[in-house]
């Protein structure tokens, strides 16, 4: 069947799932690696098991093409359960037709529905240096970064048609002296950051060994030949387009490689590069961590939209990039560089913006003009792209977080220790059962976007200490996940932790120091709450499903609204110590007025009382009124 991509010799998959091609078996030169042997039978390494990826990542070179010899090929081993590598690029065999047929159909569907704007975007990010393309995720800091790093590109748009020849990124002739492609120049104000990005994308981070090992063709080389229908459309070269065909963007027709045996699809090299650069930037600029992760997924999706890669290719690229970034950051040889890059970025951006480590985050999230301002929209964009066409099979197995993976959160959650960051990764990970994600060490199950929002579950008691004096995330952070589990939370330190989720953890909540903010009605889970020091602040009405105890020199801060129910509802008893304080804030939109009695605390039983009641008003004061339902306040003029 003719291909819509312009190359008329194509590989196809028949109804039995076998790859066919008109080029013949002599077209390829590489022998198949022994995937089946490694995955299904004991080998010489069975007694001790293969080395952890972070200890063996430098084995990712083109002389090593088997899972026994190459750590990247090993962690991508899930692919060998859906695709049997042949002796040449065109003799492989489909093992899981459900996955690979869905893969091809997905690619055909979105490339045939692609708009011209999407085609041009795909060209832009195909040709532009991937490290440069990732800079836009820095939002309001992006232009400052480009200036400080002297980062430039010559690819700023896309042609209307098919260029006559290859187009590659280069330093523009009119660029300032010392400018550099990608992440920028080492001889710049952000030289350490640029060097960190390039180090993460170093000599052991190539996707080529994986491509040679798996020999899974690009989607435009492998169009399905069963039950095809002529759509009546023509491609850019005048050939008919069929309903099951992947259509390469017109602008990229001459940007493709000529030799199939040297141009495998799995894993996607561009996807690998986007995520490598994105996670390196995220280490240096964790204030934009989730936005960088989001953009890496977004740019990777353009590889499918362009017709140059398939969903499985993109998933493979993300998996290897996640592991390679962790390995590079965890390598002791890079300890000084990564610390210097983070310090340099923080110093540069605070100086350029007139902020402090405590206020830089707010400056970096202005909402207006930020393409990634909507956190919920970012989460919705990422969720389906974590698995694409994969369907889940099998039981739910717990994840053992890969060795060294916790380094990926080192600057985003700096107040947690390594073991706690591993728990965050484990409790926010994807479930088992997705074939490509369940390879060796299961790096593909990590969900870094979710992990940046803290724990997904308290499976045991968690104690977190934030230090206001240390600044940045040490001083204040928000956990946005819906937290479950049998464990509880103890908040220590002078900093502020905010919980925003609909939480269901059962182990209770203790505030010992600093501030714990309940930013949703169910932020404190389903257990008892004890405030032994510091402040518990509710940004909305709050529900405690167990008992509430407040003792020592501590403060409960609640919000009062006009014509509203109690600010705090407790399901069981309330016990108040003699030094406890109640601090009340008037809602700015619907404040209660003088002369009204406002319910504050509702509970079946209340013992003790607050030492004093404070109100943030210059004209009103709050007089406590004890009732059979708990506590109200009468607002009177001063």
TrEMBL record:
Domain of life: Bacteria
Native species: Streptomyces koelreuteriae
Signal peptide coordinates: 1-36
PROSITE patterns linked to this entry: TAT
Keywords: Signal
Domain Phosphatidic acid phosphatase type 2/haloperoxidase: residue ranges: 190-329
UniProt protein name: Phosphatase PAP2 family protein
